[in-house]
Design goal:
The complex is a heterodimer. By secondary structure, chain A is mostly beta strands. Chain A has no helices and 10 strands. Chain B is α/β, with parallel strands linked by helices. Chain B has a single domain, classed as TIM Barrel. Chain B is 37% helix and 10% strand. Chain B is globular. The two termini of chain B are 17 Å apart. The mean pLDDT of chain B is 95. Classes of the chains: A mainly beta, B alpha/beta. Bound molecules: FE2/S2 (inorganic) cluster. Chain A: InterPro entries: Rieske_2Fe-2S, Rieske_2Fe-2S_sf. Chain A: This is Rieske (2Fe-2S) protein. Chain A: Keywords: 2Fe-2S, Iron, Iron-sulfur, Metal-binding.
Amino acid sequence: MRTVVVAAVGEIPPGGRKIVEIEGRSIGVFHLADGYVALRNACPHEGAPLCRGALSGAVTSPAPGRYRYERRGEILRCPWHQWEFDVRTGRSWVDPDRVRVRSYPVTVDGTQVIVHV
Amino acid sequence: MRGTGLIDCDVHNAVSSDAALLPYLPARWRRHLDLVGSRTFSPFTKGYAYPKAARFASRRDAWPPSGGLPGSDLDFMRAQLLDAYGIEHAVLNCLYRAPEQRNDAFGAALAAAVNDWQVEHWLERDSRLRASVTVPFESPDLAAVEIDRAAAHHGFVQVLLYPRSMAPLGKRRYWPIYEAACRAGLPVGIHAASTTPGPTTASGWPSYYIEDHTGLAVAFQAQVSSLIFEGVFDRFPALRVVLMEGGFAWVPALMARLDALHHRLRDEVPDLEHPPSHYLRHRIRITTQPMEEPERPGDLVPLLREIGQDVLMFSTDYPHWDFDDPQRAFRTRVPADLHQRIMYDNARAQYRFAA
Ligand code: FES
């Protein structure tokens, strides 16, 4: 595993993202409320630049007539056909076991954001 | 796709604002646009009956950095589509709402303006581009005039109709369009869209876009049946029809059903020269997007074979939200000969592109 410095701390605002190129692979680095995550910027469906998609939340319903909007900013929607992915794990919302996008560990070292590829 | 040619049979260029058409409108209709504006049969003056998955029904990454609508910026389209995929030819289908106008003469003026705008801003600026002629097809006499006029430019390769028309497209009232198309040597393309104020299904308004989108396949089947049984193909032997964005998995089922019924009910349509499937195989071409995605991707190949190797022509539907990537749209390996026909040969023959 290699470590690559992709950004300075503070460079990517909370809720923001940065798309970087590492060894020919396009990777999206997302700044969530409690840290960073990184995903391959290629949708497993038809290869769209997934990390340019919209971040939203998930609507769940514990009972008829009751709805909750949760995980705000953690569901990534593909810019092409709107498949949704859990930005923390890379698993798709609709078929998490079969359809997923590669995710990479991210650590923060003092002033640097580091992706492990 | 590398190494072999690629033709994209359905790309959407967009008129960014009515102002773009002003230079192509006579003063009388510029004034009309100013005073009255667009009045269509759609119950919605702006936008659509349903929100379509994404803003302007477009890929989120297809909004040009220069501003304007997806599909309105040629340079961005070159970078994101034509150059990116090495497309040899792309057929533009402009969905500007000229054919839907309640005022038929205004619709005709708008259609002519759209076509002149296409010549200047698209066809003359990139030799890879071809386009469909926008026509006010609910006024077939006016449509025929526009076909005769626009076809003088070699960049127009097709006449554009929609499947949700006021009457089934085989009806006699539409025949002047087919006559003009044959005169011009152009196929008639039918692309998912609507000119009617009515609901999008035969049984009223559904609640969801997902129903509306699925219902398209049914609208196309009704038009195919109408064209066949009203005798359009027999009456106009040179006429070719292209179906765009209506799916294709339904084709074998429709052919089998129509042929079986034709055995029993042919006395009702004694003038028909061939069994219905003959027209589907020989006179109709179908674009691939939205690609059928069966549960087991490999099931696609027998379906493609059954439809016939000459029928399907690849399309991306760029910049719309259900865009198909030329290298990824078939989620299975399609045999090389069949693949070559779908990606290139069939469209080249259909639109008579030079080798
Ligand atoms: S390419 Fe991402 S959903 Fe189709």
